[in-house]
Design goal:
Keywords: Transferase
CATH superfamily of the largest domain: Vaccinia Virus protein VP39
CATH class of the largest domain: Alpha Beta
GO molecular function: transferase activity
InterPro entries: Methyltransf_25, SAM-dependent_MTases_sf
Number of strands: 13
CATH architecture of the largest domain: 3-Layer(aba) Sandwich
Protein name: Cyclopropane-fatty-acyl-phospholipid synthase
Largest sheet: 7 strands, mixed
Bound molecules: S-adenosylmethionine
Distance between the termini: 53 Å
Length: 288
C-alpha cells in the first residue's frame, strides 16, 4: 500500500465506505492464534465486562436461570458460544449435565483444563454452533452476551431452527440481546492509533477504527482496519443488530418459541423502557 512516500488512497478508501449489512471481515477473529490470546485474557479478567461478564454477574445469572427455567439437577444444558466455560462450570457444580460449544480452540482448551482441574464432567465441543445437529436432547439452551445480535437475520433464523430442534418438548431457550440504548451509550468514536504490539497483532501496526450506523435496520458496525508494517491490511468487523422487546418477541415467535419472561438482563433485573439489554427466557412450542 505504501509506494515510496505515496499512500495508495484508493485501497484505503474501499474500506471507508459503509459496507453492505453483514459483509464479512477477516474469517479468523475468535479463533485467530494471536487475537484469541487477548480475548481469553479479557474473558478471564474479573474486573471488566469485556468478552464475558464479571464473576458475580455470572453467578447471579446461573442462579436466576435455574429458578426461571425450573431446572433440576441432572437436566441437560447446552451453552452455545460458551467461551472458556465460565457458566458451564457453575451449572456443572450444581449437578447439571452440561455441554459447551465454542469455535475458539483456545477457549475450549482452557475450559477443558478447568473442568479437569475441578473434577467436573462437562462435555466441550470445538464447533461452529451453526453446524450443530442435536435433536430433542436438551432441557435448556443458553446463548449469552449478545451472540444473537452479531449474525445476519438469515443465520439467526437458521440458529433458531437448530436450537428449536436441539431442545426437548417444552424446553427453554435463554438469551440476551442489546437494545439501541446500549448503542447510544457505547457507540464507537472514530479514532486511530499505532501500537508496537497489541490486541490485533503481535508486531507494529496501525489501527483505524470506525463505526457505521444503519438506523433503518437497527444495525451498527464496529470496524477495525489493521495495517501492518509490510502494508498488509486486515479488516475486522463486529456487527450488532439491536432489538426492542417487540422485535425480539416477533423473531422468537416466528421461530415457534413463546417468550415466558423478559428482564433488563439475565440476572433478573426488572425490564425498563431504557434498558441497555434484554434478558429473555423463551419456551419451545410446537412448530408453526
Ligand atoms: C461475547 S463471547 C461470550 C462468551 C460466553 N457466552 C460468556 O458470556 O462468557 C462470544 C463467544 O461465542 C463464540 N462464538 C461466536 N460465534 C460462534 C459460532 N458461530 N460458533 C461457536 N462459537 C461461537 C466466541 O468464540 C466467543 O467465545
Amino acid at each position: 500500500m505504501i509506494d515510496g512516500d505515496h499512500l495508495n488512497f484508493n485501497v484505503l478508501e474501499r474500506f471507508l465506505q459503509r459496507p453492505e449489512p453483514f459483509a464479512s471481515g477477516e474469517k479468523l477473529f475468535w479463533n485467530d492464534p494471536h487475537i484469541s490470546k487477548g480475548m481469553l485474557a479479557a474473558h478471564l479478567n474479573p474486573a471488566i465486562d469485556a468478552a464475558s461478564r464479571r464473576p458475580e454477574t455470572i453467578e447471579k445469572t446461573v442462579n436466576h436461570m435455574i429458578r426461571s427455567m425450573n431446572l433440576k439437577a441432572g437436566d441437560k444444558i447446552l451453552d452455545l458460544g460458551c467461551g472458556p466455560g465460565l457458566y458451564c462450570k457453575h451449572f456443572a457444580q450444581q449437578g447439571f449435565s452440561v455441554t459447551g460449544v465454542d469455535y475458539s480452540q483456545r477457549s475450549i482448551e482452557y475450559a477443558e483444563q478447568a473442568a479437569t482441574d475441578h473434577s467436573l464432567d462437562i462435555e466441550y465441543k470445538y464447533m461452529d454452533y451453526l453446524d450443530m445437529n442435536y435433536c430433542d436432547t436438551f432441557d435448556a439452551v443458553l446463548l449469552i452476551y449478545g451472540d444473537f445480535c452479531v449474525i445476519s437475520d438469515k443465520k439467526r433464523d437458521l440458529l433458531l431452527r437448530k436450537i428449536h430442534k436441539a431442545l426437548k418438548p417444552d424446553g427453554y431457550f435463554a438469551l440476551d440481546v442489546s437494545t439501541k440504548i446500549h448503542r447510544k451509550k457505547n457507540g464507537l468514536k472514530n479514532r486511530w492509533y499505532a501500537a508496537e504490539n497489541g490486541f490485533w497483532k503481535p508486531e507494529p501496526h496501525l489501527v483505524l477504527e470506525n463505526g457505521f450506523d444503519y438506523p433503518e435496520e437497527n444495525l451498527y458496525l464496529d470496524q477495525y482496519l489493521v495495517i501492518e508494517k509490510c502494508g498488509k491490511i486486515s479488516v475486522y468487523r463486529n456487527w450488532f443488530h439491536d432489538y426492542s422487546l417487540g422485535e425480539i418477541r416477533e423473531v422468537l415467535e416466528a421461530g415457534s418459541f413463546s417468550v415466558q419472561s423478559a428482564w433488563s438482563d439475565l440476572t433478573g433485573k426488572p425490564y425498563k423502557e431504557n434498558s441497555e439489554w434484554i434478558g429473555i427466557v423463551a419456551k419451545k412450542e410446537s412448530l408453526i
